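re the bet — no i am not wrong, look at it urself. input seq straight from the record:
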Amino acid sequence: MRGFTCVDPDGTVRPGPELWSDPAVRMNDGGCDPAGAFYCGSMAYDARPGAGSVHRLAPDGTTRVVHRGATISNGLVWAPDGSEAHYADTGTGTVFRLHPDPETGDFGTLEPWVRVNPADGGPDGITRDAEGGIWVALWGGSAVRRYAPDGTLAAVVEVGASQVSACAFGGPGYRELYITTSRQDLAPHEDPGAGAVFRAEPGVRGLPPLPYAG
């Protein structure tokens, strides 16, 4: 997939224009901002450095590139007031903090916020809780970590599979953390828990998901 496709409530599929032509690059992960724009980042299949970008789909259907030079563009989550966002590039082992332009969505300068030691896995999908903590799924790390607003490690949820891909709050009051895992590149006998969805009660409330407004 080299662009955005919208599926209407009645099942109508509305494919958008192709945003790039290189067949070696694909979409990966993304999220919505409080104004209802949807952002999704790309990466090369071979994960070559700098091949990815982040594209913004505005509510009116127009698109623009808001960040270039990503390696494995991954989790992206906004503060409820839109003043800041956090963004994971797995290829760099870094979760960045940024202050997007409120009019264009351009990322501007990325501030390295948390660097994950490769021995502990790579930052993949992320989510935000109601206290401003950022939860980071660790691909290859068998865990989800919570970082406090100042970037210090505050909690760890161990997961019964290595390739932890994403996490999101749900359930009553958004007090449950749902965690996805992957079987990518694993043999049938490896990592029996891989591919399962796990549930945890981390003791902090999450936030409602931000919808696309288009």
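see?? The two ends are 20 Å apart (CA to CA). told u. also DSSP finds no helices and 17 strands in the chain. so pay up
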